[in-house]
Amino acid sequence: MSRTFYVTTPIYYVNDVPHIGHAYTTLAADVLARYKRIMGYEVFFLTGTDEHGQKVEKTANAAGETPLELADRVVKRFQALWEKLDITPSDFIRTTQERHKKGVSHFFENVLAKGDIYLGQYEDWYCTPCETFWTETQLLDGNCPDCNRSTEKLKEESYFFRMSKYQEQLLAHIEANPEFIQPKSRRNEIISFVKEGLRDLSVSRTTFNWGIPVPKNESHVIYVWFDALANYITALGYPDEDGNYGRFWPADVHLIGKDILRFHTVYWPTFLMAAGLPLPKKVFAHGWWTVEGQKMSKSLQNVVEPNMLIDRYGVDAVRYFLLREVPFGLDGDFSQAALVNRINSDLANDLGNLLNRSTAMINKYFDGQLREPEEMAVIDLAYRAKTEAMVAQVETNMEDLAFSKALQSIWEVVSAGNKYIDETAPWSLAKDPAQSGRLATVMYSLLESQRIVYFLLSAFMPKTAVKALGYLGCAEAPTEAGLAWGGLKPGTAIVKAEALFPRIEDKGE
Ligand code: MSP
């Protein structure tokens, strides 16, 4: 039986156009999906858009469009960006699709039938941008405690979800499954939140109608977060057990930003408990990007537009930078100077140079033909051992979703390669015909180590990896077995590489 892996991104609101925050989560999910595919997993990678709710309705009204017109227009922007970023989702779910609406109605009815949704009266403070209710005491000077914007008092008939009933069960689950909420700091934050007590949650609204109607009571629409969270199962065909739902649920990991942690680790698991469904194995909350030291916001006009970055610096440089610059889980700052710096030092100097130097040398000394290596000397064995250790290290890093560390592990081998050239001095060996066997071993080690480097890098920088592997005469798709030393066959023609990443002279101002 093949191993499966299910990874998701949040579904993005269509009242905003995509920026690097959205690109970041989606890119991380893509790298993970690509890596797992290399390792032989059958992967389901889901992304999509969150199209219901008051926020979307208000934005559409302001733009003189229907909410669906707005959604149709913005969805295209997301999809085009994912294509441009080389993102490879298995499916793209829109919450306005029939399959989703059907699944959500079923999910709602299921919880209702179990007695965990009941009709009551709501009177509380609502923050529309966050689509969240707050009690009087939770407000800070009358404003939303999360985003500090104003709230409005709402009194309405509402369906409630008996979240309070699941407090102990949820705590027990979090405690018994240390992997469930990550990173650890986030887990502690949620444990404290749950210990303060869970209230029943309003899961329907009557004051607007852009949403999925409550089954058999169409004056209510289902709360947008109940609707949205269910995408993770409706996209798999829930409630149909055959097919993807039976195959991929529970998810291996939901990747999210830290701002939506509570929805994913308190609301979602308790909904699932009530419905009697298994919980996702892991929820990982990454940090937020600021831009040149400031919060990214429309009013500051500093929203970083990924399309512009890709046009200017290339897709793989952007993919590399976003995952290398900041440890996944921590906040980070985006600046063009930092991006240019990474391109010049890590990509042009370290990675690109190694490929250039080694492919140029083998062309100069052996007419571009890879020769059979002889017995390896201590220095070659050490270089090979470092390459092999990298494969294991990257596996651990990817298991921890430590993308930046995985790239560091790879770069240690890239640097070791440049040092290996300096220490073995192939140009001296080339002068002495008696050393030709030794030179063959050095050349083989250099190119073989890089083949493995590019197999791993194909998850992060797919186009660059294909290009580099092409120079190395390697056309096969990366696989787990291919990560073992010895894949390059003597006799292979090696092409002299062009610069993978030309240096950038402007500093990004
Ligand atoms: N629609 C909800 C998610 C529903 S999931 C069932 C939503 N959408 S969102 O479009 O507002 O945000 C989506 C994601 O973008 C969140 O994970 C959020 O953390 C992320 N980011 C938004 N701005 C960001 C940064 N400046 N930096 C990093 N990520 C950011 O919430």
Describe this structure in words.
Strand 12, helix 10 (261-275) and strand 13 (283-286) form a beta-alpha-beta unit. The N and C termini lie far apart (53 Å). The strands form 4 sheets. Strands 3-2-1-12-13-7 form a 6-stranded parallel beta sheet, sandwiched between helices. Strands 5-4-6-8 form a 4-stranded antiparallel beta sheet. 48% of the residues lie in helices and 15% in strands. The chain has 509 residues and is of the alpha/beta class. It is elongated, with a radius of gyration of 26 Å. It contains 18 helices and 16 strands. Helix 13 (336-366) packs antiparallel against helix 17 and helix 17 runs antiparallel to helix 18 (462-471).
